Amino acid sequence: MKKPFFTHSQNFRERRPRLLKAIMVMLPMMLFSLWSNGAFSQCVLACNDHIQVSVDESCNVEITPDMVIEGFEALTCALTVELQDADGNVMPSSPFVNASHINQTIMVSVIDAASGNSCWGTILVEDKLDPTITCPASPQIDFICSDVDELYTPESTILEGDLDTGNPDTDDNCEVVSVSYSDQLLEGEPCESDEIIRTFVATDLAGNEAACEQSIIIRKPTLADVDLPEAVNVGCGLLGDVDPGTLADAGYTGFPTITTYFGTHNIETTYCNIGASYVDAPAIDLCGSGYKIIRNWTIFDWCTAESQTYVQIIKVEDTTAPTVECPTYPTLAAAQLSCDATLTLLDGNGSDNCSAGLSYSIELIAEGGTSLGFFAPGDEITVPTGAHTLVYTATDECGNISDSCDTDLTVEDQTPPVAICDEHTIVSLGSDGTSTVCYQTFDDGSYDNCELLAIKVKRMDASNNTPFTDCVEF
């Protein structure tokens, strides 16, 4: 006979309290086991051996765990990043890298803060962003012909300082370490302008480059660019032995010139497409050894077949005064009858850079400063006694007058006076038996060739020590 279904049911109901109790005991243990296994499996770390990291527009980047960990998406633990230098020390910028780390390989560690578990690898820091560069505009400078020699730089050259043609503007997310430039010369036809294409290249820390180009135009000269030589006055003493035929070659008179941005150039024969020549008329003699040249210049432009003429006056003249040294005169004795001396004036010792002959003016100045007249060498003059001065001045053939010199001229009275006395003189004695007789009584026409200063007398029977006086006692 079958058992009834509900019996089975009755038995299950009887065992259910024991089953629920067992489940309640086992469930916490199962949940702990599941959590423990999940936690440890999520913090098993695996780092990439080597990765490349590029800095951003600010030349900076943070190294995060997801850059380094393989399978980072499956992890839920808290991770930190440490960057280490070659000695294993934590870098001050960790976990950031910047411009100072460009092109360096750095060791990176990812660490689980909870368990201390870690892994490591290396990163290469790179900059993949090119610098920017903007060239200067074509310069508004009037470059002419030979200026190209100063401008043209065919080899790559590091830019240092400011160029006459302008410098480029550069920028970079990290740093522009150098700017170089090089030129390509596009030569025009003989009568056309030349062009330089200047290429600037900016290079950053990572070696990234950016370039731009600048156009520089160098034109051919025209007749309007020619500066004509001015009239020339040259002191003949400055020329030495230069004669009229070689005067221009010696560089004294100047050539037509063209001034460009980088300098001034003589057109001795040609400069680029501009030529110059001259023809001199026969020299015209001037005073001294001076002369005048009329120089006819012709300036021509080979490109336009245009020409112009110009007359340059070149004067070689004596503009320098001569020099003079005075002769020396001996002391002269006055004549015995006239109290003066006669002499013939000597030449001065003069020299001049141009004139062959000099003329001299001689002024006689008396002892008190009074001028006694002007004379010339060879003149015979009569000079009174005294200490006088002769002033010499030289004049060359062109009228240039020297500074003066002076010399002493002394005329002395070397002749003693002549005393003439009355042979017999009678005097009367006074009431006291004496008489005083003065020199006028005895003088019978005493004289001197110049001037008697005084007449004195004394008795003939007086001793030698008795002085002469105006009068004597008898």
A few lines on this structure:
With 474 residues, the chain is mainly beta. The protein has helices spanning 5-42, 65-68, 147-151, 439-442; strands at residues 50-54, 61-62, 79-84, 96-97, 105-112, 118-126, 132-134, 143-144, 157-158, 169-171, 176-186, 194-204, 209-219, 226-227, 232-235, 257-260, 263-266, 270-271, 274-280, 284-285, 291-301, 306-317, 323-325, 332-333, 340-344, 349-351, 359-365, 371-375, 380-384, 386-395, 405-412, 436-438, 471-473.
Short key terms for the protein model shown above:
33 strands, mainly beta, 4 helices, 474 residues, five-stranded mixed β-sheet, elongated
Characterise the protein shown here:
The structure is a single chain. This protein is mainly β and 474 residues long. It is 11% helix and 37% strand. The chain is built from 4 helices and 33 strands. The protein has helices at 5-42, 65-68, 147-151, 439-442, and strands at 50-54, 61-62, 79-84, 96-97, 105-112, 118-126, 132-134, 143-144, 157-158, 169-171, 176-186, 194-204, 209-219, 226-227, 232-235, 257-260, 263-266, 270-271, 274-280, 284-285, 291-301, 306-317, 323-325, 332-333, 340-344, 349-351, 359-365, 371-375, 380-384, 386-395, 405-412, 436-438, 471-473. The strands form 10 sheets. Strands 15, 18, 19, 20, 21 and 22 form a 6-stranded mixed beta sheet that branches. It has a 5-stranded mixed beta sheet with strand order 8-13-12-11-9. The chain has a 5-stranded mixed beta sheet with strand order 24-31-30-27-28, with no helix packed on it. It is elongated, with a radius of gyration of 61 Å.
